[in-house]
Amino acid sequence: MNRILVVEDHAPLRDQIAALLLAAGWAVEEASDGRLGLQLALAQPPDVLLLDLGLPGLDGVALCQRLREQADRHVPVLMLTARDSLDDKRQGFGAGADDYLLKPFASEELLWRCQALARRGELGRSPVLRCGPLRIDRRSAEVCGTAGQVLPLPPQAYRLLLVLAEAWPRTVSRSELHQQLWADEPPESDALRSHLYTLRQALGPDQGLVKTVHGVGLRLSPPA
Description:
Structural class: alpha/beta
Domain OmpR/PhoB-type: 126-222
InterPro entries: CheY-like_superfamily (IPR011006), OmpR/PhoB-type_DNA-bd (IPR001867), Sig_transdc_resp-reg_C-effctor (IPR016032), Sig_transdc_resp-reg_receiver (IPR001789), WalR-like (IPR039420), WH-like_DNA-bd_sf (IPR036388)
Number of domains: 2
Organism: Pelomonas margarita
Shape: elongated
CATH class of the largest domain: Alpha Beta
Domain Response regulatory: 3-118
Pfam family, one: Response_reg
CATH topology of the largest domain: Rossmann fold
Helix content: 40-55%
CATH superfamily of the largest domain: Response regulator
Largest sheet: 5 strands, parallel
Strand content: 15-25%
Number of helices: 8
Order of helices and strands: EHEHEHEHEHEEEHEHHEE
Number of strands: 11
């Protein structure tokens, strides 16, 4: 599931965009001001950042500039604004935007552009993640452990490990894990505990990599 961060201070429009993206199968995170938007984008880089320009706290151009300076990977940025002059567009692209969409916009076009940016971001990202002794191949959904053997991970246990690996070294809260694994359809039982147990059993000698941070969530802790 692709993740998108919507940074827009106009609540009705933000709600409209979030509903559109959720219906299309995206995991949506929201921010109403520039400082919070930058904080969220750096803490867990989304697959696409949908960015308004006229934001309180930190405007969209400054946010994009700081993101390009501080992020450890390229986050595709779609600027969404009513500013339609050539100079406005020059500033947006100069700050590091990947695309620019004028308000008002057609819902279908917004989705097309977000999907295209997500694909572009995926092409620039290595398909293989390494975390300590683990090797996670996103293409084949295979995980290799210390001895190089492929670990028998069920789909949700694999997804749990992938979320933790992509967030490393950050601790991922239980609420965020629920959102990543089940979006808006959380299971009735404590399925996270069950998938965590399955993951640790499958990791065998590497199960100590998955740490519980009490009162916070889970994180991977590979040896230095």
